Predict the structure of NYN domain-containing protein.
Amino acid sequence: MFYKDERLALFIDGSNLYAAGKALGFDIDYKLLRQEFMRRGKLLRAFYYTALLENDEYSPIRPLVDWLHYNGYSMVTKAAKEYTDSMGRRKVKGNMDIELAVDAMELAPRLDHAVLFSGDGDFRPLVESLQRQGVRVSVVSTIRSQPPMIADELRRQADNFIELDELRDVIGRPPREPRFDQPQEQESVE
């Protein structure tokens, strides 16, 4: 349901896409993902939204954020809020829905097709608004996980639902081979 001459933008809810890929048992290769959608149309922007823990010495997502920024993604980040829940557990909150919605609305007049990588039902009004502006909307998520990662109302509102699991062979990172750290034998030259 893509046309070669249409102007595309990707809106990736980072934590939602990560959770969907993890639920399906594969990692996303973001270089392949970008190439796939460049092949499908005229890719104007590929946005990636994520919250970051600013006060941690090392954030596991920082290398990905840096790589994406360097490799053609428009990164939208903000500081995550840390809190302790009623059970005394450390929690992190970093919702990027508003930032994603604002960017999509701003870009809508220059788009033919928006691709939303999220299953969050809160995006249904955004999808509806984009459609009223003449933008076709595809949603990428999964119904194959238990429980499904896509909200039914979002899937029904979208012009096109793309099952993430069906993109596995196109955008999935090959599983890493286990490494066995064995000493290498040295050849002696005599």
Notes: Residues 140 and 162 are 5 Å apart (CA to CA). The first strand starts at residue 7 and ends at 13. Residues 182-190 have pLDDT under 50 and may be disordered. Helices lie at 14-24, 30-40, 62-70, 97-107, 124-132, 152-157, 168-171.
